[in-house]
Design brief:
nine-stranded antiparallel sheet; T-fold
């Protein structure tokens, strides 16, 4: 289930998952703006934008506000929040609470943000009937180890089956601010939800500072509010899985979020049979989809659901999204077919 936010991503993913950063109201692949920009586009409003390396990729923000100074202040505070949470939710840094939890298999006095993300993860595990499962970390790490040592040909079905015995989010016990694993050898990864949570927290910082119009693209998780400098909704082009610039669709958002999961983000073999998304039931990577985009109210929700739909496979995943209020999805299959939920609204006439 792991998608992003990990130690192997930066070289391969830095430009892969950027479904566009900052344009004139349109987010589309390949558009990488200057690191910082402040433009007064009429007598009343500034467009302030910045792109920084964070979350194993790039985080880009565009703010529309009457005061350049206030927009830049809010933008700086939002990036500070991203940096704080990025450190907190990084399981590869041995000093973090998450790393200690994975090592010791229990932890008291959970930091509030870590508690929030784990609690949300368990809710999505229940909602998706187990498709979203943060306990797949042992299997993901198994693939990574084989990949790092160039040993993909030695993958063992027997070893995968043994590792699957450690996978079951129902065996995570949380009591107030304490957490423990009920199976020996369990560990968790928050990479299928952490980026969305961080983007939502950054959006909260902007809203707290009275920024009413903005777009955040954090490692491919997009959160928008208000309108562009042209007084139109933010337009987002869905990433082309083949990277030929043939975007499957475009959508428009005022207040909402979108996340995309794809087998092109982090993969371990040339054919992309083994990649960063893992089915917690089989221990294998789903093969029928190459890209899943989900629209939802928050980036946390869109992040978790895009991974879940990818695990479910195309038809069941679309059916699942059709049962949820205020959500929509677009799936690109391995054969190039494009499936859309009933609520998906294309911006292309």
């Amino acid at each position: 289930m792991e998608k992003k936010f990990n130690q192997y991503q930066l070289d391969r993913r830095s430009f892969l998952k950027m479904s566009g950063l900052l344009g004139l109201g349109t987010v589309s692949a390949g558009m990488i703006p200057a690191c910082a920009e402040a433009v007064k586009f009429d007598k009343y409003m500034y467009k302030v934008s910045r792109t920084k390396l964070a979350m194993g990729s790039f985080v880009a923000m565009t703010l529309i506000h009457p005061s350049k100074d206030k927009a830049e202040e809010a933008l700086n505070l939002a990036y500070e929040e991203i940096a704080r949470l990025e450190g907190l939710l990084n399981r590869f840094d041995g000093t973090t609470a998450l790393a200690r939890l994975n090592k010791e298999e229990n932890l008291k006095d959970l930091p509030p943000d870590l508690q929030n993300v784990i609690a949300a993860s368990l809710q999505y595990h229940q909602l998706t009937n187990g498709a979203f499962d943060i306990t797949v970390a042992p299997i993901v790490d198994y693939y990574k180890e084989k990949f790092a040592n160039d040993q993909l040909m030695t993958l063992s079905e027997q070893e995968i089956q043994m590792l699957l015995k450690r996978v079951d989010a129902r065996k995570i016990h949380m009591d107030q601010r304490s957490i423990s694993f009920q199976k020996a050898g369990m560990s968790i990864t928050l990479d299928g939800i952490a980026a969305g949570y961080i983007v939502d927290r950054a959006a909260g910082i902007l809203s707290k500072h009275k920024i009413e119009h903005f777009l955040i693209n954090g490692s491919g998780e997009i959160r928008t509010m208000g309108k562009t400098e042209k007084n139109k909704p933010w337009r987002i082009a869905i990433q082309d899985p083949i990277k030929n610039g043939n975007y499957p669709d475009q959508i428009e958002i005022n207040n909402g979020a979108m996340a995309t999961s794809g087998n092109y983000e982090v993969y371990f073999d040339r054919e992309k049979i083994f990649h960063h998304i893992v089915n917690p039931q089989t221990g294998l990577s789903p093969r029928q989809s190459v890209s899943v985009s989900v629209l939802a109210g928050t980036a946390t929700q869109a992040d978790a659901l895009s991974t879940s739909v990818f695990v479910m496979e195309p038809d069941p995943g679309i059916h699942f999204i059709n049962t949820l209020p205020n959500c929509a999805a677009l799936v690109v299959t391995r054969e190039g077919q494009i499936l859309k939920s009933r609520t998906w609204k294309s911006a292309i006439a």
